[in-house]
Amino acid sequence: MVVENYSEGLQYLKSEISRTELTCRTDDKFLLRFLRAKKCDSKRAFTLLQNYYFVRRRYSHVFSNFVPSSVRDILQSGVFEVLSQCDQLGRKIFVGRVSRWEVYKHNVIDLLRANLMILETLLEEVEVQQNGIVIIYDCRGFTWRHAIQFTPRVIYLITKLLESTFPVRYKEMHIVYMHALAKNVVSFIKPLMTKKMKKRVHLHDNCMQQLHSFLSKNCLPEEYGGELKNQDFRIFLEKVLNLEEEFGYHQKYWTEN
């Protein structure tokens, strides 16, 4: 059901929450994330909202102690970064770098937790809810020690949590510096993606010219053939860490009965 405005959509969501006794946040700011993610289709937004809380209760090993301080080391390592410059369409660019993943120290679930917290922080911005995000995964440094962590169960969990239960619009995903081992992992992940998402995944190997056909150079760091200099990932890191109290408050909806 596509409603004509967000007011009607909010009314519908709150009515369904009351009717189904779903335990969740009901403030307008939070619910609007789901309406914007589904382009004001209220029924689809409510389904997404239900899924959002269901997986948080179902996968307690991921969402227990779901606060930024629990992944501080990962955030400080620079594995993930949100670039200061939006792309030419006003979309935030989220970068993940395998070379900064200390595989002996943090497992893939640790990284997933940090990834989700960064996305939650991004969604505090209305522009991100409306315009969506672009993801760049840099596979340099990807070894068999990384690869063996992507078991079928983990791959299923990652695709489920990031794609079908999270209110963010993934506009493009670019995987750069690919090699055979990384391609094998991607080949296992793609079949679990929706048809729409598969079309938005682009593999670039070492060719940055292909990446530039999607993203303007002025929004990319120099390492990807762009013009951005002196990026400091710690700026966004501080923004995430400053939401410790908000994350703690939020998780009560799936940890308390």
Explain the overall architecture.
The protein has helices spanning 6-20, 28-37, 42-58, 60-63, 72-77, 108-122, 126-131, 144-147, 152-164, 180-189, 195-199, 208-212, 234-241, 244-250, 252-255, and strands at residues 80-82, 92-97, 133-138, 170-176, 201-205. By secondary structure, it is an alpha/beta fold. A five-stranded mixed β-sheet has the order 1-2-3-4-5. Helix 1 (6-20) packs across helix 2, helix 1 packs across helix 3 (42-58) and helix 2 crosses helix 3 (42-58). The longest helix is centred in the N-terminal third of the chain and has 17 residues, at 42-58. The chain is globular, with a radius of gyration of 18 Å. The two termini are 31 Å apart. The relative contact order is 0.14.
